[in-house]
Amino acid sequence: MTSTETYRPAFPDRDYPHISYGLPFPEACAKHVTSTFNASRVYIISSGSLAKNTEALISLQKAMGDRVVGTRIGMKPHTLWSEVLEIVKEAKQANADLLITLGAGSLTDASKIISLALANSVSTFSDLASLAAASQKQANSGDRQSINAPTVSIISIPTSLSGGEYSDFAGGTNDETHHKQSFSDPVKGPQIIILDAALTSTTPASVWLSTGIRSVDHCVETLCSLKSNPESDDDAERGLRMLAPGLLRCKHDKEDLEARHHCQMGVIEAMKAVGKGVPMGGSHAIGHQLGPLGVGHGETSCILLPAVCKYNIKANGERQKKVLQILWSDKEVKTVLQRRGLKEEQADLGDLLDAVIAELGMPRSLRAVGVGKDKLDKLAENSLKDPWTATNPIPLKEKGQIMNILEMAAT
Hints:
This protein has 411 residues and is α/β, with parallel strands linked by helices. Helices cover 52% and strands 11% of the residues.
């Protein structure tokens, strides 16, 4: 049977990104490299594990043929500036006119920063620091800085569920300071996102499930925000209703491609909510700085989200009740909650999220990921620099507040 492609905007109110699914990813990618971008000099950034353990990269390279002018295999988590600059140099020397990422979220963030850096003659740590500062100033004030917009487009073939491919925002970690810095306006995300559920079955379960909780975090912090709106709440609810049972099904059966596709669709709904401007809260803010300590992107949400919900309950208890209702109303989720001894009239949102995360087999404490108490003071200090500390339902203005959350998540 011949496969057919579904190709449409991810979001009804935006021209990009478009999503493509239904075709094997090499076929879909070759089609759009030619017909959509007319690109002739393609630079591929591939997951190291995909390149080592599967035929995915070879299949993509064969589909691209002589258009490939460079390939980077493997990047460390959290998008290190040193590696970004290495790729910027290679892509510039190769005169690349299109970037393709094959893998998880760190590669996607890297491609966004690389595309921006290529347009602004960036070659050093100092250049990147200046670019990050200028982009943040432009985003916050609306004052146009002397930043060139990216001209090299991106195709993303994601193998995880963190959702960064749907945003015009990127985070990169300064290797020297271990501080993760944001790049925003005029960052531009991928123009096309190719979804292939079968490809994601090669993703390690720990990565797939933990990044799925990252998107659950997008939904929950939207629904629990005191600055949300009905439209964003609807998006986040749809996303949560797809992600929570979908992840549990994926845990039960790695080859459940329908569940994997549902999770991918749930990510889009989660990012619709985020894209409407609802600010995130403490889980995202602290998570941005926990990651550079060697904790996986999705694992930060597994550890922090339940604790942040418990910390915030006095300020947003009514909004948390809505999330409780969503989770209890799903048959798949309810079965897990009941089996783990939770009672609907007693358990709070932090309890429910912790039970789901435990069912998925994900880490639930800082100790489980090797972050000791000796790291908490500096982690709290760095977290205060994140803009989403101020938009937490209980604004996080002092180090002691963040220490309270970290202590809840410590063991």
